[in-house]
Amino acid sequence: MFIRCIALVLALIASAVVADTTTVATVDSPGKVLTVSVTLDGDGRPGYAVSRSGTPVISESRLGFLLTDAPKLERNFKAADTATRSVDETWEQPWGERRYVRNHYNELKVTLVEKTSLARSLQVVFRVYDDGMGFRYEFPSQPRLSQVNIAEELTEFAVVDRATAWWIPAGEWNRYEYLYNRTPLSEVSQAHTPVTIKTDRGLHIAIHEAALVDYSSMWLRRVEGTRLKAALSPSSQGAKVRRTAPFTTPWRTMQIADTAGGLYMSDLILNLNEPNKLGDVSWFKPAKYVGIWWEMHLGTSTWASGPKHGATTANAKRYIDFAAKNGFRGVLIEGWNEGWDGDWFANGETFSFTRPYPDFDLAGVAAYAKRKGVRLIGHHETSANIAHYEQQLAAGLDLYAQLGIDTVKTGYVADAGGVKALGEDGKIHFEWHDGQVMSRHHLKVVTEAAQRHIAVVAHEPIKDTGLRRTYPNWVAREGARGMEYNAWGNPPNPPEHEANLVFTRMLSGPMDFTPGVLSLLGKDGQQIQSTIAKQLALYVVIYSPVQMAADLPSNYAKYPGPFQFIKDVPTDWADSRVLNGEVGDYATFARKDRNSDDWYIGSVSDENARTLDIRLDFLDPGRRYSAQIYRDGDGADWKSNPHAIAIENREVKRGDALQLKLAPGGGEAIRLHAL
Ligand code: NOJ
Ligand code: CA
Question: Is the N or C terminus of the chain more exposed, i.e. has fewer CB atoms within 10 Å?
């Protein structure tokens, strides 16, 4: 009886809460696929919910903020105003996975005002697309909330259905270089975004953010069940974000699709970023590069000075000759500058960004490269000591500009939370790689570089949130386990790694993965868990406008057949399609060259062999193509027979069917050359 009474009381309370929740406004996507509704509960707490074709996807989820020095912004609100508008435009990328991007959405802007005497105002803007939605907070200029010190963001994502999630931990010692977990969504702890989710009904959702500018990165912490909540990356200053109104937060995003490929095909993240602020960026040339790099990861040479120093004048000239002979535009040289001796992981303050080691003639090497028609790629390893780096940034970039070096690879090797930054008090403070301080730092480097017509590839970066649209010289990042883990990683990348990456990390933007290690051997002979055909496929599957041919020139000499594909494959695309894929299992991409009528196909598998049927329905009608097929040879297997590859030619046309037979840990790469 007692229990029944309690149940009745609880039910009454629940119904009272439900009855009290009012819908302030709703907005549909242009094709009426997604609907977002904005609500206020009985306490004036704002929330939102998302449904797809009438089925709830995200149930009522909270919005708001905790502040460090003022009452929280999360209840007692009324909706003072709502406004809608629609946009349908197409814009052109200077480089990318596709040339033209359609930006088609309906927008709802809700102005919330506190009913209390503080009467502070907060706006939430929703942009709803057929393939996803984004929302952001806008803090208008107002007397009672001018300096905004955010302790935490209260944004929630309450996923309705039970689901599987692919995720890497956030707030741990490493930055983003983890193997992907595949767990029930209800077992996620705290994750970096993008988090990719597949509900038990088969719906795919990726939660991420767009336009992370002067703000702290959003991690996702599971609160209970399948409800996630924003947790901002910390700051040494207490408040995780410090801003002055007016300002806007990054967009909180959800790509929603029936298939894993549908997530990748969405341009939501780019569309939610501001248009290009740099104007003509035709000085950046998407290109492939080689470099003095893999040999250090193999341990056969060193970044540090001494008998094994990799960045010598003679070695650099060898790589330049190799690049010139094989048509690579770029030559990366790491370890050219002073500062690598001793414990460089810890001693970022010893780096000079202008002084070469004595056995490296920087000006002479740059002149030699120029004569040979190739460009050096500069390297700024900072060991995450940005206080030190920022002092030399201008001088380091000026030097590169003078020498005609138009791409710089930056690096921030240090454990998470180990960034050394100069505080307002003139002291060094420790920060996270993805906090507000680093979001500012990266944009400082990128804009300074842009002024000198230099492109930036950041390793150990802050995550990508589509800022390449606004700053197209921020061309790629690492920000996940790349090829280097196959040299010395314990464990190395497993065969499923790339099939995980393309539907998680790669949803955020280009990755400098550095593929193409045809020798398939890491340090001390550690076996790479891939076939040779898969190494080729990665150039199509893992997009970046700068792609390394990472192996040693002496190894490429052993594999002239497969090496031809690496020489042929472009790095800039007119169009991209996902032909098939399942997160962590396999993926097949087709991309059209931006500078010819050729198409390329790349397909990768996990540890399982599989047969995939594809149809060439994307090819131009009436056109014939020579298909140059690089497939796993009969009996290929990453473990026992990784170098078995068959290279075949046949003529194909639009509508033809192809069967891809992928080995365990295998792949396939195809060049479709228009005749
Ligand atoms: C880590 C980077 O990911 C790698 O590419 C680079 O060689 C080393 N740091 C040294 O800067
Ligand atoms: Ca790295």
Answer: N
